[in-house]
Design goal:
Elements (H helix, E strand, L loop, with lengths): L11 E8 L10 H16 L5 E7 L9 H11 L3 E6 L2 H4 L3 H14 L3 E4 L4 E2 L6 H30 L12 E4 L2 E7 L4 H12 L4 H10 L5 H9 L16 H8 L8 E3 L2 E2 L9 E2 L6 E3 L9 H13 L16 E3 L6 E4 L10 E4 H5 L9 E2 H21 L1 H9 L3 H37 L5 H48 L8 H7 E6 L14 E5 L21 E2 L1
Parallel strand pairs: 1-2, 1-3, 3-4, 12-16, 17-18
Antiparallel strand pairs: 4-5, 6-7, 8-11, 9-10, 13-14, 14-15, 16-17
Helix pairs in contact: 4-5, 6-10, 12-13, 12-15, 14-15
Amino acid sequence: MRSTENTNRNLITALYCRLSQEDERLGESLSIENQRLMLQRYAEEHRFPNIQFYVDDGFSGADFNRPSFKRMMNDVECGKVGIVIVKDQSRLGRDYLQTGMLMEITFPQYDVRFIAVNDGVDSVNGVSDFSGIKNYFNDFYARDTSRKIRAVQRAKGERGERVGSTIPYGYMKNPDNPKQFIPNPETAPVVKRIFEMYASGIGIVKICDRLSKEQIVSPSVYAFKTTGSKSGSPDLTRPYHWAQTTVRKMLANQEYAGDTVNFKTYSKSNKLKKRLKNDPENILIFENTHEAIIDRKTFELVQKHFAGRKRPDKQGEIDKYAGYLFCGECGSRLYLHRGKTIKPENNNFQCGGFQRRTSDCTAHYIRENVLDQIILHNLKTVTAFAREHPEGFYAMATQNGEAEAKKFYKTAEREKVQIEKRIKELDNIIRCLYEDRVCGRLTPERYDVMANGYEQEQAELQQELTSITERINKLDMREKCIQEFMDKAKEYLEMPNLTPELLRVFIRRIEVYEKPEKYSRTAGNPIIIHYAFQLPEQNGMPAIEVLARPTTKTA
């Protein structure tokens, strides 16, 4: 056993400095410098041997996973440290339980003398009860500070300001406004290419392989080389290694579409550093807050593929129908069956509800090449009709509802003006009633009855106004969707093969029904195609027969 005086000149006198996360600066701050000077002067005045600094700059006292602190404690446990000196107890940590355990159990166990200069603590003289009280107040301060910071971050996030500290790969800080970020000319093209590859049918495994072969530096290594950040644990021995999880997270990151997404994760306590995924209803999304790297349609296509995948693709390819293909009876997704033992011409789709036995549905078996033929032929027919007969296509797309739409448009704006005027009148009436109550001209009971009646009327008017606005927006959206479809039909004159891009541009949903004759090899599956110009709540358009077998209907 070593003596408590630690007379061994070979033992380290550890001078531990910490700057709180709230006061973090780049590099070592003035606060850290002051701590170093104070501790060094104290150690020299008391002639403590073998001085060594352990510095954590920019780390919260509630976090005991600090690199230099961990290194110091490892030296303590290895018997290398004789004395630990800090400016005050809070520098050691702000969790009173862990700090108390260090002072009263860990340090004595390893015969380490502990000194907190400003608090007048020296373990040679014993640890007083006041030290425990001091640790408790330090802990209270940390919790109070954490609450205040969370409140500020919450307010910023609710205003639409980005609260995340890490800039996504592909972006950089705006030199003119550090609070915003703009596409990085060096890395943004890489992000765009990753999305384009995935949208064209290339799987994540193959994307990672291509990036590695082309010696494109991984995001974590790039961040380390440009900013010194060690976030993401960069592997400098494999700078061109792209992990599948990295690419998958990038493909799911809505910020690439130009949106700010706040509160994706949360922690249960300031003492728990593990971040948990937040519920969707607690996530706030603000659209078009910065320049997008990925156009919204491409991003939505990628998310459709994610939603339609049941497991990672072992062959490095993705199902182009993922997110589009559904069972017409039970509504489950249809999943692609393929493999090394299955010939490509025998690749087929089957109902997921049937496979999982979650419903009494049937297989709805249909081969991929048959489905490709039907969808492509139908798509060519519809787009040609849109190009060559725009008026007829528009009449079909609006489903004979044009007269009704014009009539609605004519009266809707007038009704909106009248409703908004009445809502303002009710505001004035309620305000006058309140003044009468305050002045004693109206009893509280009478006020409550009258005010409740007017507020009820106001609420009903507001609901009616919302309904009218939503209907106008839907009609506007229908017009926009029809026009976009007709414009795209003029662009895509040649369609040699059915691609994920064609599905993204022209089709919203495909429903496959069971064969009229279940085990027939000649009877086909009825198919309903919902095109992009149709809103989800619209009924189907007239059927267009494209093949005798299998028969196809469009809606």
